[in-house]
TrEMBL record, chains A, B:
SMART domains referenced in this protein's UniProt entry, alphabetically: D-ser_dehydrat (SM01119)
Protein family (similarity comment): Belongs to the DSD1 family.
Organism: Allopusillimonas soli
Annotated keywords: Lyase
Organism placement in taxonomy: Bacteria, Pseudomonadati, Pseudomonadota, Betaproteobacteria, Burkholderiales
CDD domains reported in the protein's UniProt record: PLPDE_III_LS_D-TA
Protein name: DSD1 family PLP-dependent enzyme
Gene3D superfamilies, per the entry: Alanine racemase, D-serine dehydratase-like domain
Amino acid sequence: MSSLPANIGDAFHDIDTPALVVDLDAFEKNLKTMADFVRKKGLRLRPHAKTHRCADIALKQIQLGAVGQCCQKVGEAEALIKAGVRNIIITNQIVSEAKLVRLAHLARQADIALCFDDRKQVDMASRIAAAQGVELGALVEVDVGMKRCGVAPGVPACELAAYIEAAPALRFRGLQAYQGAAQHLRTYEARKAAVEHAAQQVQSTVDLLSENGISCEIVAGAGTGTYPFESAAGPWNELQAGSYIFMDAEYGAIEGADGGPYSDFNHSLFVLASVMSVAAVPGRAILDAGLKSFSVEKGMPKVHGLRDATVIGASDEHAVLVMDTAHGARNLALGDKVMLIPGHCDPTVSLHECIVGVRNGRVESTWRIDRDGSSR
Amino acid sequence: MSSLPANIGDAFHDIDTPALVVDLDAFEKNLKTMADFVRKKGLRLRPHAKTHRCADIALKQIQLGAVGQCCQKVGEAEALIKAGVRNIIITNQIVSEAKLVRLAHLARQADIALCFDDRKQVDMASRIAAAQGVELGALVEVDVGMKRCGVAPGVPACELAAYIEAAPALRFRGLQAYQGAAQHLRTYEARKAAVEHAAQQVQSTVDLLSENGISCEIVAGAGTGTYPFESAAGPWNELQAGSYIFMDAEYGAIEGADGGPYSDFNHSLFVLASVMSVAAVPGRAILDAGLKSFSVEKGMPKVHGLRDATVIGASDEHAVLVMDTAHGARNLALGDKVMLIPGHCDPTVSLHECIVGVRNGRVESTWRIDRDGSSR
């Protein structure tokens, strides 16, 4: 008994469902598009591993030039470092002594930095790093509009940077300035304006630090929805996009530069499901994938490649698909396979233990997703 | 490095976060309340394992009198049978040959039944069970208002039952009649009316089967929101409630028999989180648990035991908690622990690999959740 939905070499139609499937051609094209972009711009790319939690993907990104990985949690970093990644930023604050001890252990094997927005975090990390005999990299997180974590730009950020500079066993390396609230603004102009506003705040903070003799080796931020704007000008030198490798329905719904649908990257990630029932209501097909196979907090998944077929609901292990046969949808039969584009890629991926890579109708890879303990 | 958030004997305040925590006193009381109820009513209880995916819990339920477990997927059944469960109904249709072969293997070790709502499913299951030399139990699923799976009550259900009776290697055992759409209707009367309507349909189907010489050993259904109504009178003899062991914010929001909040069972399940940042907006605390630790499709989690504190948003690994200090909420500090009641228990549980059982401020148990492959 294997818990994997497929083995390498299997035909596509033999993949057990539900399964998380990646179209390898589209995925590799996305990897290359972003790698080429940052190379041309002279920037660094540090993709966010929260999107994939998959060492195979992290190593591919690094092979194409990424300087390392971003993680949200120490558990994610542990899994990646075990697999050979050597340069990680934890894009989060850590307030647990036990977690900081684990992070200090990782700092013996890899270049590690984390984020701060409070002196108490600095005191705790400095004390533990010193006790463990390691040095941890430190970024000041600046709130540039997301209202989640981060100190205000300008003086508060500079004061915290100076405090870090004075703390033993921490090395100030720069700013974490991610405008998460801008990523899914529908229009191109709205996203551009939000990042340009953030850019002024970040630049003035960098300038103020410089006036105080503190230099920023790293100014990090950007996501799949805004990376062209952070790259265009201004203070950022390191991009942290993650979703570009997969895309999802939420990113598929924003506008691109030409006012048409955003198309910098292609949908490569799908939840493969089977029709398990067509008995209850004519024109409906019930799929064998539900809330335990895709996240719906950004909306129901979209149906890939089927005209006028819409997912109207989901429960734990079912999705309800409605086929508008009057407008050309074909009726689905028991056992038919359907490819769903999830609303939001990151929380969908971590529902699965494996990513099945497919090309030319065959299973070419089965990559493990490291999820046990990865949120801690 | 352990991926578990705690070890047995740890103090409550040393549990690493985020963690899925069960209050063992409340949990055991819930188990006993339902076990006593069905015993008094002379009914059978077959709790749904989709709620917990945890063999430790399944075995406790059986020890208290449950006749076995319901599963939604073959993968869930495999994990439970490996742990010693010997009587399982798959409350779903199976349309995959590979899955049916796996189910046939399980039928050599346990009493297995599954649901049907189409002759093609019957043909496939009958053929595979016969080829494997086993007999599978068969329930006809009847749609009693959920509009998801199931044939219509009455003649269609009887015709499918007769078709199953004639099929080799399948044994007709009864009806699956779950009114899932009634579980969360807010008022007690609305839930009662929905189940009474379903009861007529199920009873007339049972009667029609009887007239045709087909007896129903099992008439199964009911959930945590409606079990008193299925038990009150009518055709059901086996209850399939699952959420009663944990409760959640969604069940906490419905009315009980007295018009007050539903209180048949107590909240025993919590996501334990830590305050990781308080820097960006006064009166807000950012928690280290998000969409990868609790499901939000039924709403944000509720904050347990803190007055005027509300979760207003969640991203992958963050929740935003607002404290209305003007109305008595206390300001939370970095590192403070918060207990969240998830909106929906089932998809929250399967985000975790472990349930930490706590009593009197100590960790008493760490139960493994079997999630790898469990949706297949």
